């Protein structure tokens, strides 16, 4: 099984990329969000989910481990295949997927190509109240060698969103609040801030959300 590829991007086309790793070109299926971060001739690192079928082995590549983990989680919902999961992650970040699931916002999922109202409703209901996927514990994301500072900043930003929400949910659960209620409160509270809040402020507003319900 392949979990990560690091090599030179040879092709970044419609729905797929070819990554040259020591002379072997790996064909990887990618969403537009990931493809937009690839540059031909430059080094790329993709988090990979490998699907093994009777007649084919398909690699799906992602900019971050959070995206790959949500790709897997979304497919735990009946009727959601790789195509629909990629379509959702093309229009929503992992943090936005978590928020939509926590709030059972079926409209958010229905914006994805190929996801109808019935499937969107099922996704929102089945993922509601569940903790976010933990992934493989690998925090690196795609980097460009000539833009190390920008990539590091991007990496930190992408990881901080989920970490902040997870820490806030854990704090509320430790106070005796049910996980489902904690997830909804944190998601709702997070959306009231124009910039990323600090943990104490997020918990404070989340507690107010619970008190108002």
Please sum up the structure shown:
By secondary structure, the protein is of the alpha+beta class. The chain contains nine helices and five strands; from the N terminus they run E-E-E-H-E-E-H-H-H-H-H-H-H-H.
Task: Annotate the secondary structure layout.
Elements lengths: L3 E9 L3 E6 L2 E7 L1 H4 L7 E10 L4 E6 L2 H10 L7 H10 L2 H9 L3 H5 L6 H11 L20 H27 L4 H12 L8 H14 L1
Parallel strand pairs: 3-5
Antiparallel strand pairs: 1-2, 1-4, 2-3, 4-5
Helix pairs in contact: 2-3, 4-6, 4-8, 7-8, 7-9, 8-9
Kindly describe this structure.
By secondary structure, the protein is an alpha+beta fold. The chain folds into three domains: 4-62, Nucleic acid-binding proteins (OB fold (Dihydrolipoamide Acetyltransferase, E2P), Beta Barrel), CATH 2.40.50; 66-127, DNA polymerase, domain 1, CATH 1.10.150.20; 145-212, no CATH class. 48% of the residues lie in helices and 18% in strands. It has helices spanning 32-35, 65-74, 82-91, 94-102, 106-110, 117-127, 148-174, 179-190, 199-212; strands at residues 4-12, 16-21, 24-30, 43-52, 57-62. The chain has a five-stranded mixed barrel. Helix 2 (65-74) crosses helix 3 (82-91) and helix 7 packs across helix 8. Mean pLDDT is 85; it is low at 140-159.
